[in-house]
Specification:
The chain has one domain (4-175, 270-395): FAD/NAD(P)-binding domain. Helices cover 35% and strands 29% of the residues. The protein has helices at residues 15-26, 50-58, 62-66, 108-122, 164-168, 230-237, 241-251, 300-320, 328-357, 361-376, 378-389, and strands at 4-11, 31-34, 45-49, 70-72, 74-79, 90-93, 103-107, 124-126, 130-136, 139-144, 149-157, 173-189, 196-202, 205-212, 221-228, 259-261, 266-275, 279-280, 283-285, 291-292. The strands form three sheets. Strands 5, 6, 12, 13, 14, 15, 16, 17 and 20 form a nine-stranded mixed β-sheet that branches. The longest helix has 30 residues, at 328-357. The protein binds flavin-adenine dinucleotide. Residues 5-313 form the FAD-binding domain.
Length: 413
């Protein structure tokens, strides 16, 4: 006998799982979310783009996140590969596509804690892993690590790259690795970032500074994501804070003046993963349970939130047609809506990353030709910006721009 019966069980309490659970609860489903909440500060942040901000605005969560996040008005890319065909620097300004900012950057653990608080008020949040899950006719039966059981008509697998739910649903995953580690850190620095994120493209991958909000007397702060070889990561991991800050300062050419670490750093091995399908009978995959790639161009969680928004729309629509929303057939619109976007991001990030790692001259030439084109051709640059922050095709309802207020006509004014 189940201890709890709900419409939908969300497995995983990371940013994707908590966001899914809140959105589904707000859509009127009874929801339980089970997973451990990662409260560690490890220098990781997420840059959330316009469509993700619209999503959190639609859920009423943006007011609690806004003052914790720093706006990203410009993104600059600098070729630091020392390649024979050096690429020009390119700066993308949100104002070119009619936005005040591309999005906003927030610390991962801060975002997750805020989402957890909102989830606690809206649904049954169980801070406990799922030990096992069985797929049965008409629903799933999950046993939590504390021995309790939850029965649901649908399970949303948001339990990360090693997803237990995905493997119990017999959905195949293909994984690969990159010869890189992403070092992450929060930095306090001398000069203001002016809401500009700067990406230095090096031979081992990008080294990116992303604006952060000031805090506790630290007026100028940024986060760092620096992709490097395993050997360099091992050497830098052994450095003291001062020496590491000095190496970061050198790598970014002193762009933001003197730097100091603000808290613990993280070191994350880079990998990729894609799945054979996004849905099964009684199961839908979202977030890193469904796709994984290195953190280039800040795509991971933004893609995951598009998964979540599309899934909410699919199950809402199935329910409004009076259908059982957990069947493979009812979930098909979700799979169809997400395939292209996921494959485009996974392959695009893979290509860009490999083009940096390659010292093969024609690859360098192509990469720098791309940079030249983006620097020189306005419409191309604007198309790339729109694709990066809003994506092509129809966005799900939760990411549509708010309806414009009608201006009162003179006759009625
Ligand atoms: C260095 C770095 C920088 C990044 N920067 C950006 C960025 O700027 N913008 C962006 O959009 N993305 C970025 N990303 C990607 C983004 O951080 C991830 O996509 C996102 O955090 C993944 O969220 P998730 O909820 O899918 O997975 P996770 O955060 O891995 O959450 C999975 C959850 O499942 C739980 N779990 C695991 N097993 C079980 C189980 N058996 N039962 C229940 N729960 C379980 C875990 O405890 C965890 O809570 C970055 C990634 C990295 C590595």
């Amino acid at each position: 006998m189940a201890d709890e019966k709900v419409d939908i069980l969300v497995a995983g309490a990371g940013a994707a799982g908590l966001s899914a659970a809140i959105a589904l609860a707000q859509a009127g489903f009874s929801v339980a979310c089970a997973g451990q909440i990662d409260r560690r500060a490890n220098g990781r942040t997420v840059a959330l783009f316009e469509s993700s901000l619209r999503f959190y605005k639609a859920l009423g969560l943006w007011p609690r996140l806004r003052d914790l996040a720093a706006p990203l008005a410009k993104i600059a890319m600098v070729d630091a590969t020392n390649a024979r065909f050096a690429a020009p620097s390119v700066t993308f300004a949100a104002s070119e596509i009619g936005l005040a900012a591309f999005g906003a950057n927030i610390e991962n653990n801060v975002l997750v804690e805020e989402l957890a608080q909102a989830a606690r008020a809206a649904l049954s949040l169980r801070e406990c892993l799922i030990a096992d899950i069985r797929f049965e006719p008409g629903g799933v039966d999950a046993t939590l690590a504390d021995g309790s059981r939850i029965r649901a008509a649908l399970v949303v697998a948001a339990d990360g790259r090693q997803s237990l739910v995905r493997s119990r649903a017999a959905i195949e995953a293909r994984s690969w690795t990159y010869p890189q580690i992403a070092a992450t850190a929060l930095l306090a620095h001398e000069k203001p970032h002016r809401d500009i994120s700067t990406e230095f493209h090096t031979r081992s991958g990008p080294c990116t500074l992303v604006p952060l909000r000031p805090r506790d007397g630290l007026a100028h702060r940024s986060s760092l994501v620096w992709l490097m070889s395993d050997a360099e990561a091992e050497r830098r991991r052994a450095l003291n804070d001062e020496a590491l800050a000095g190496e970061i300062e050198d790598q970014v050419g002193g762009l933001l003046g003197a730097m100091a670490l603000d808290g613990a750093c993280g070191f994350f091995p880079m990998a990729g993963m894609s799945v054979s399908r996004l849905t099964g009978e009684r199961v839908a995959l979202v977030g890193e349970a469904a796709h994984l790639f290195p953190p280039l161009a800040a795509q991971g969680l933004n893609l995951s939130l598009r998964d979540v928004a599309a899934l909410v729309q699919t199950v809402e629509d199935a329910r409004s047609r009076g259908e059982d929303f957990g069947t493979l057939e009812a979930l098909e619109p979700y799979a169809a809506a997400r395939r292209g976007d996921i494959s485009l991001r996974t392959n695009g990030v893979d290509l860009l990353n490999r083009s940096l790692l390659s010292e093969f001259a024609p690859v360098d030439l192509m990469r720098s030709a791309g940079f030249f084109a983006f620097a020189a051709i306005g419409p191309l640059r604007r198309a790339l910006m729109r694709e990066g922050v809003l994506t092509h095709g129809d966005l799900p309802r939760l990411m549509q721009p708010p309806p414009r207020r009608k201006t009162p006509s003179r006759a009625h004014a």
